[in-house]
Amino acid sequence: MASYDLIVIGAGPGGYVCAIKAAQLGLKTAVVEGRETLGGTCLNVGCIPSKALLHATHALHEAEHNFAKMGLKAETPTVDWDQMLAYKRDSVGQNTGGIEFLFKKNKIDWLKGWGSIPEAGKVKVGDETHEAKHIVIASGSVPSSIPNVEIDEKVVVTSTGALELGRIPEKMVVIGAGVIGLELGSVYRRLGSEVTVVEYLDAITPGMDAEVARNFQKILTKQGLKFVLGSAVQGVAVEGEKATVTWKSRKDDSEESLTADCVLVATGRKPYVEGLGLEELGVEMTDRGQIKIDDHFKTSVDGVYAIGDAVPGLMLAHKAEDEGVAIAEILAGQKGHVNYEVIPGVVYTHPEVATVGKTEEQLKEEGRGYKVGKFPFLGNARAKANFSAEGFVKILADKKTDRILGAHIIGPMAGDLIHEVCVAMEFGAAAEDLARTCHAHPTYSEGVREAALALGDGAIHA
Ligand code: NAI
Fold first, then answer.
1. Topology of domain 156-267, per CATH?
2. 368 vs 117: CA distance, rounded Å
3. Could you tell me which CATH class the domain 3-143+270-338 is placed in?
């Protein structure tokens, strides 16, 4: 038995970042993790492997569609699927190995196994019980399915199975037009699969600024993804190596079905809290199965805290990371804080979509006076040269004060571009502050400045 200042349960982005920060602040820290490798869902079966496949298939897209235009004459590449998966595994391995190195560097103990909390101040891993002044639960989430759909991770898969398919499917049905469905749907579309996305709502990417979502859907449709919107999937029937998905139109109750080689169920995720012993411990939960916490991440049990996907809020790796830092600071006697108003969200398709702050719909609902500044990438020299002129930057600012309230970008490197707006928002900047900041030419970032200019006297290149 060992004794620690802090034991973190779970080594995903929330947990491992929390542990490193706590160790840096002088806390004796251990992390419990039952997977063979550190990094949680994000590094092992989420963000990182999906980005490797998105990168590889985007390169394929460039070779197929743009190489010849640039005078690059080569045979169009063929896909060696096994090698592509090996590349993906290598990317994962480098990253999970990196966390192991950081644990050693920061003298963090990895308690290997699945942990539970028999009582406040104690964490059980296997046969051993360890003591901790503080416990942080960062146990993450798992895919959640829908009724009449049985996951086998072969024909009917979650994102986990979709990252390790035995072969590239000819036909794929994706249930749910959220981030997972669209990112992985894009991967297989670029690999030649016929991809149909069935979505319950009348628009893709729920919660996204509606104008951006509409534009996004148009671009993805042009890339060959098919969308069936306003339709509730009723069930999936598997026969051998095929599966038939049946859905019902919400408008007129008519039923349709489609048979495919692979069905990706991307209908959301739910907190992973099984086996932690939370009920016996008396930890209060929400009616959606999330761990209830107060403003300082404390659960209903003293000394036990929770962060990340297991608590209410956005299920995003970087939100969990920020919560990990904040709770480590609080436990070290500092003032940890997360600004939930400025958390970017990115969809890593091509083009990327990135958003931060309020959508136009939210501002309307709040009855807030706002103005819109927009700039299309068609007016951006770099984007045009790089065959990346689809999409636009949209910035929303307060009508009276010019303070930036939100930004929504669909276009090249949107996931990187969004951060200058995030910094501006953190500093309470006005759109004019962005507009008056010199931006290097030629860069995609000029698109952000131009949208800010559009909120004042007008964009220069539009
Ligand atoms: P999601 O919640 O984003 O989307 C699920 C979609 O499925 C919704 O649009 C919903 O209306 C639809 N749906 C539910 N039941 C249905 C039915 N019976 N028939 C048809 N459609 C149905 O969930 P997703 O994409 O699985 O992602 C899970 C979580 O992981 C999200 O919180 C997401 O933000 C996060 N994530 C974030 C990524 C990123 O930031 N790039 C990447 C991957 C996941």
1. FAD/NAD(P)-binding domain (3.50.50)
2. 46
3. alpha beta
